[in-house]
């Protein structure tokens, strides 16, 4: 593949910032790779200078299936909190690009443009996934976003140029691949693992996991990753205008939009009937009202109403629900993790924060 020359965009810098926290440069010289320069209009650039200080990768925030733990890739490595609050435990000295749903396996960016699958308990590498191109990036990995399927059987990884590969976790073989032509901002598998929603440019491509074929698109912002409802019927994300929107997962038609709320991220409740929306901040109309809202779309069986949860969440945060639906967690790269009681809007737990990088 002929190397491309391109200018760093804000979404791309975000991907590379996460790459640094994910321990991507742990073996940069393996296989004789030259991770030395990224072609831009002004020559090569050191990405380390472009990355803001942070405590964790907000996009890496997950809970275990029982809701006992909260985990994120942080400055100390892989950090795990008890959901009841308190200090975090460093379960690995290296961060991750993705972690399996059962929290036993992490995907890390290594070497030229490879992904290592490593057991959390013991840090043993069990697979090395290869095939993504190496566009010669300074101080970071040519690997962008990574995601596990919900059953943990597949891993999808994207290169910085829009290449995407899906591998089998069991044997490391390539299952499917495609080229989206633009940098990938996020990857999300459907609950049954049969499809992926991939944010690229100003749209989201819906791909078949077994072939990489595109079966539909929805218009959504690259910076706010699309999410699937737990029942698989809906896809939610943020439009290019900043509005939280729900699309039908089969027809890809927009069924409902929340106007007047400039969102950074959305998350479905475990029962698929409501969404939490974290605000982007800035000077939009929601700034003085709330930073975290609960939305019950009519299409999902709700009343079409929004309820303010709290004004205290950090603008631009990522957001996820606890498995029981009673707590919403927000994560900010600069401020760390917070837990909110969905009923009262008060802090549900006090979580210690990793140091700033």
Task: Explain how this protein is built.
By secondary structure, this protein is mainly beta. It has a domain of 240 residues: YVTN repeat-like/Quinoprotein amine dehydrogenase (Methylamine Dehydrogenase, Chain H, 7 Propeller), CATH 2.130.10. It is 3% helix and 40% strand. The protein is built from 1 helix and 28 strands. A hairpin with a 5-residue loop joins strand 13 and strand 14. It is globular, with a radius of gyration of 19 Å. The N terminus is likely disordered.
Task: State the gist of this model.
By secondary structure, this protein is mainly beta. It has one helix spanning 10-21, and strands at 62-63, 69-74, 77-82, 88-92, 98-99, 105-110, 114-119, 125-129, 143-148, 154-159, 163-168, 174-179, 184-189, 195-200, 203-208, 214-219, 227-228, 234-238, 244-248, 254-257, 263-268, 275-279, 292-296, 305-310, 318-321, 327-332, 336-341, 347-349. The relative contact order is 0.12.
